[in-house]
Amino acid sequence: MSILLEVANLQISYGRRIVLRSATLTAQSGEFLALVGVNGAGKSTLLDIIAGFRKPAAGSVAIAGRHQKDWNLRELSQRVSHLPQAVHADLPYTAEQLVAMGRYPHTDRWFESDEDHSFIREAMKRTHCWEYRHRNFGSLSGGERQRVLLAACLAQNASILLLDEPSTFLDVDQQLHCFTVLREEAKTGKLCIAVTHDLNLALTHCSRIIVLADGIVAHDLPASKAHEEDAWLQLFSSRLRMGTTPAGAPWIWYQ
Amino acid sequence: MTPHEYTTTAARRNLIPPICVFVASAIFLPWVGAGPISLARVLHHQSPDYEILIQLRITRTLLALVAGGALSLAGALFQAMLRDALATPYTLGISAGASLGAVAVIAAGWQMVWGIPATWFGALAGAFAVFTLVLGGFSRRRKISAFSLLLTGIAVNSVCAACIIILGGFAGMSRTFSIARWLIGSVDSTSFASLGLLSAVVLILAVLIMSQARNWNLVAVGDQWAATRGVNVPALLRTGYLAGSVLVAGAIALTGPIGFVGLIVPHLVRSRISPDHRVLLPSVFLFGGALLAVCDAIGRIVLPPAEIPAGAVLALIGGPYLVWAIRQRRPSEEI
Q1: Looking at chain B from residue 24 to 53, which residues have their Cβ under 8 Å from any Cβ of chain A?
Q2: Reported pTM
Q3: Domain range spanning residue B301?
Q4: Is B76 helix (H, G, I), strand (E, B) or coil?
Q5: Which CATH superfamily is domain A3-254 in?
Q6: CB contact (8 A) between residue A105 and residue B229
Q7: CA 20 to 30 Å from B312, out of A104, B81, B227, B302?
């Protein structure tokens, strides 16, 4: 396990509204972090800053021990992949064409190599979208699109995966599958950080729960011990209660 | 679409039809015209067949091929950058700006500057004025809706059209006629020097634009999508807007405002061949050039001895075909 990500004292505001006041976070390879918080807490903004396309007013980000600014864009994209909350793919790319774009940072070739094709195929099979690889992305349902975008992130084969609500639009079975795939990625030594509003999905699949509130990392808990305190839970709603499953795993329910 | 569309072999296969059409247009269309041309007389440099073919037909065919390719390529480029199938140099007002610049030069009576048609300088200045005013503002908050885009284009086109009318009113009879004829949009014979210069500019810019084809694929999906795959998005967009504006200004300075080709050709190639810009951009260039050359040839033969401008033929054929093609598509294929 090595430190892959160091975020220190990030600050950013939109106009007069302070989104991140002093966000600090360190994460290692092999971890799967759930980034949670109420709407507007700055979760997506934090991912954007780590991905490198939003500049903070202050603070720093280090990727694999090197300051983010010291990586060139291509090097950074080989190490960090990002699943955006939404993609407006109005141009009629096929699902496979979109996933293939995940391989662009890895090659100077005009077209993808056999190795690239195997990454694309494997990623699409893992996210259950291989069977509709030839379909127009615009013709897919929300859940089908989300699986294609996740496949594009996997095909990028980066050591840090930043996922902004990866289970959005997915049915329950696919939500479970999505988080299982990400947990498997983490087990191979990658660092996965997923923004999610599904606290039970986070508790059952992630290794750490990072709670953003008031512009800072208000709570940083191992998922296995999240049930030992419920102060973090009250940040979301006073109606939430912490319990355990028959197997002893933490489980959140509401009154 | 096949599973193997990302291979060099598949790309070559996709590029064969447009290359064949382009080359065939270059070879055969100069022979199409109101009157027959004797190959034997041409080979013996006998008048008037030799002069008609070499100085008139070949230059205008080559001009149509280069200008049509440039305008189509610019259309595909703007559609990728703005992620809107309706984005063309026309809808953005760049063509209108270039037209205003060229008309101002015609109204002033300038014809050649340093051996180059003065309309080039006027068109370039007009295109860059619009580029700076309109797209300079967008670059700060580039995410603009198709609705805003169309409104902006309508506004710019209206202002430029009004200025052109005013300029025409002050230009005098003969220059007003020249302006009116230029505005129709046609492919006339030109000097080999002008053609060579345009070809060189278009070739350099086309290579520059096509060399970034993978990055246009990414930008067409989204800025964040492109940025997290290693693209310096602001720098790429600056290059794209600049290259597209020069392509448009250079082409329409010699042909007049023929804009429809930049909308229809990218649309058809994207839906019939591939939306992948590695295949799309060269195909669009080749088909766009061939289409304008064919329209010019049709305009030469349908009502002899009169000629219908290529822009008019293009609109008459392409407009209904585009509407038909859109109606044939399933809702899921809408772009």
Answers
A1: none
A2: 0.87
A3: 8-333
A4: helix
A5: P-loop containing nucleotide triphosphate hydrolases (3.40.50.300)
A6: yes
A7: B81
